[in-house]
Amino acid sequence: MLYDPSQKYQPHPPIHLPDRQWPNKQLTHAPRWLSTDLRDGNQALADPMDGLRKLRFWELLLQCGFKEIEVAFPSASETDFQFVRQLIEERRIPHDVTIQVLTQARTDLIERTFAALEGASRATLHLYNATAPLFRRLVFRQSKEEIIQLAVSATRQIRALCEANPQTQWSYEYSPETFCFTESDFALQICEAVADVWEPCCERPMIINLPATVEVNTPNVYADQIEYFCRHFSRRNAVCISVHPHNDRGSGVASAELAILAGADRVEGCLFGNGERTGNVCLVTMAMNLYSQGVSPQLDFSDIKHVVEEVEQCNQLPVHPRHPYAGKLAFTAFSGSHQDAIKKGFTARQQSSSPLWEMPYLPVDPNDIGCSYEAVIRVNSQSGKSGAAWILEQNHGLVLPRGLQQDFSRHVQEQTDRDGNEMTLNALWQLFRKLYGPHQLADRQLLEYRSESQTEGGLSLQARVQTPEGILTLQGKGNGLLSATADALKSQFKVAFSIEDYHEHTLGRHSESRSAAYIRCTFANGESCWGVGIDNDVARASLQALLNALPIKSSN
Ligand SMILES: CC(=O)SCCNC(=O)CCNC(=O)[C@H](O)C(C)(C)COP(=O)(O)OP(=O)(O)OC[C@H]1O[C@@H](n2cnc3c(N)ncnc32)[C@H](O)[C@@H]1OP(=O)(O)O
Ligand SMILES: CC(C)C(=O)C(=O)O
Ligand SMILES: [Mg+2]
């Protein structure tokens, strides 16, 4: 019998909004961002950040371009309180950055919060209280009216304290915590009551934050709730609507994006989605999603590896290798058809002057976030010919002919299948060298050659080749250098073969660059072998390629 406890749960009802407008909207500009790494992110860590880690994170957030940063829950701990004091007393807050702090609706905690902010030139005071039925009933054991009173009297206290400290430019944020499962009309009612006390205006900015404290519904329902709120809130134009999605259902980013379509002005979240339980919405993903749509996020993640390293150090949590944009594997293709498409994409890009990024399987250019193309393709048993060929091209400048790509891929496949793991760049190169050259193999190294035109036409060749047994002298005739060398090899080794494929290219853009030559020989039994040669002299490269192609024993 299937174990099915689903009857324990019931859906949170959607709201009725048949004339919703958000599905027809598009993301056209960046929202205001608030990083709550130092508060919501911090409160979710097993070992909350100490002052030093907080400071390091703060500096990183400034580097990334955040202008609003929730820095602490000052009444929670001495560390948090002192961190706010440090930022203010050491004048670490840039003039265009606003710090924000959180408090519960409790008189003593509000007083302590104000004490932390003394001397700040600008600050946002953030008050929250849960409003959903379950929380009213279970946590507060209060009626709707009492819950409204809690928020209203805390707001009164906050406004009075702000007015008593006019040296600070105050902004106020109110969060009906658990908004996403609060009755929409009650959320409106409590926010109206709070706004009536605060009286938002230019001198008294106000943010109303509508959190998905626990994500309990599909993102479209959250978007409906946000649009409904925006359409019915009487002071809509006087306030900034913020959203604060968590990621319990794994759709925090989608919730935030649809919420912006639905009218939200601001998004609160954490880098790489740290935060309570499954985390806050990931601001890196949000920002990079905008970026990949051609909208500037107004945040700088051009050195994403540095951001990852810093956040991992501060949070002492790893960023998942599959994390969008930032994960170590976010731009890596192991599978053959992906690699083939990416390789073709890069070739097309080299030949195009279009500034647009059009790359199969890579939504953004890894270069834009400080990553190289090196890790874009990695090779294992799921890979095809293009993967290995790409790696050789990127790392050794070799542009393998299609037939050689197929041949090499067969050998790579055999090895990866046998070993069951990824082939490193070095292992791939060693296998290539063992199979085809391209530098002189120890048992057949071309030392020198001499060729002479013959009076009757054609050419005669003499070459000296180093073998383990000693120096071998080859002599042959032909129409050209290669056919004369083939003639010499055929008579020396008593082997019948013909040259079926020949390709060459320079390894670089300069005339003094080395050349690579690729040769495929076919034997009487139908089998064929490839050889590769690299040399400063293209003729030497092709002779060496031919020597490397032949499965000959050098004993003579
Ligand atoms: C969704 C969020 O992320 S909200 C932010 C949550 N963050 C944190 O809690 C981190 C910091 N918090 C703390 O350090 C502590 O909780 C403190 C210092 C704020 C308070 O600690 P304590 O006084 O020990 O209270 P405790 O943590 O148990 O809080 C529960 C009490 O606060 C009440 N409460 C909870 N939220 C609020 C609120 N927003 N406003 C007013 N009272 C509240 C509860 O009803 C409960 O009251 P009761 O004891 O009368 O039943
Ligand atoms: C304090 C509030 C905004 C919060 O963190 C939440 O609801 O998740
Ligand atoms: Mg939160």
From TrEMBL:
<dbReference type="InterPro" id="IPR005668">
    <property type="entry name" value="IPM_Synthase"/>
</dbReference>
<dbReference type="Pfam" id="PF08502">
    <property type="entry name" value="LeuA_dimer"/>
</dbReference>
<dbReference type="InterPro" id="IPR013709">
    <property type="entry name" value="2-isopropylmalate_synth_dimer"/>
</dbReference>
<keyword id="KW-0012">Acyltransferase</keyword>
<dbReference type="InterPro" id="IPR013785">
    <property type="entry name" value="Aldolase_TIM"/>
</dbReference>
<comment type="function">
    <text>Catalyzes the condensation of the acetyl group of acetyl-CoA with 3-methyl-2-oxobutanoate (2-ketoisovalerate) to form 3-carboxy-3-hydroxy-4-methylpentanoate (2-isopropylmalate).</text>
</comment>
<keyword id="KW-0028">Amino-acid biosynthesis</keyword>
<feature type="domain" description="Pyruvate carboxyltransferase">
    <location>
        <begin position="31"/>
        <end position="305"/>
    </location>
</feature>
<feature type="binding site">
    <location>
        <position position="244"/>
    </location>
    <ligand>
        <name>Mg(2+)</name>
    </ligand>
</feature>
<dbReference type="InterPro" id="IPR036230">
    <property type="entry name" value="LeuA_allosteric_dom_sf"/>
</dbReference>
<dbReference type="Pfam" id="PF00682">
    <property type="entry name" value="HMGL-like"/>
</dbReference>
<comment type="similarity">
    <text>Belongs to the alpha-IPM synthase/homocitrate synthase family. LeuA type 2 subfamily.</text>
</comment>
<feature type="binding site">
    <location>
        <position position="246"/>
    </location>
    <ligand>
        <name>Mg(2+)</name>
    </ligand>
</feature>
<keyword id="KW-0460">Magnesium</keyword>
<dbReference type="Pfam" id="PF22615">
    <property type="entry name" value="IPMS_D2"/>
</dbReference>
<keyword id="KW-0479">Metal-binding</keyword>
<comment type="pathway">
    <text>Amino-acid biosynthesis; L-leucine biosynthesis; L-leucine from 3-methyl-2-oxobutanoate: step 1/4.</text>
</comment>
<keyword id="KW-0432">Leucine biosynthesis</keyword>
<dbReference type="InterPro" id="IPR000891">
    <property type="entry name" value="PYR_CT"/>
</dbReference>
<feature type="region of interest" description="Disordered">
    <location>
        <begin position="1"/>
        <end position="21"/>
    </location>
</feature>
<keyword id="KW-0963">Cytoplasm</keyword>
<dbReference type="InterPro" id="IPR039371">
    <property type="entry name" value="LeuA_N_DRE-TIM"/>
</dbReference>
<feature type="region of interest" description="Regulatory domain">
    <location>
        <begin position="439"/>
        <end position="556"/>
    </location>
</feature>
<feature type="binding site">
    <location>
        <position position="40"/>
    </location>
    <ligand>
        <name>Mg(2+)</name>
    </ligand>
</feature>
<comment type="subunit">
    <text>Homodimer.</text>
</comment>
<dbReference type="InterPro" id="IPR002034">
    <property type="entry name" value="AIPM/Hcit_synth_CS"/>
</dbReference>
<feature type="binding site">
    <location>
        <position position="280"/>
    </location>
    <ligand>
        <name>Mg(2+)</name>
    </ligand>
</feature>
<keyword id="KW-0808">Transferase</keyword>
<dbReference type="InterPro" id="IPR054692">
    <property type="entry name" value="LeuA-like_post-cat"/>
</dbReference>
<dbReference type="GO" id="GO:0003852">
    <property type="term" value="F:2-isopropylmalate synthase activity"/>
</dbReference>
<protein>
    <recommendedName>
        <fullName>2-isopropylmalate synthase</fullName>
        <ecNumber>2.3.3.13</ecNumber>
    </recommendedName>
</protein>
<keyword id="KW-0100">Branched-chain amino acid biosynthesis</keyword>
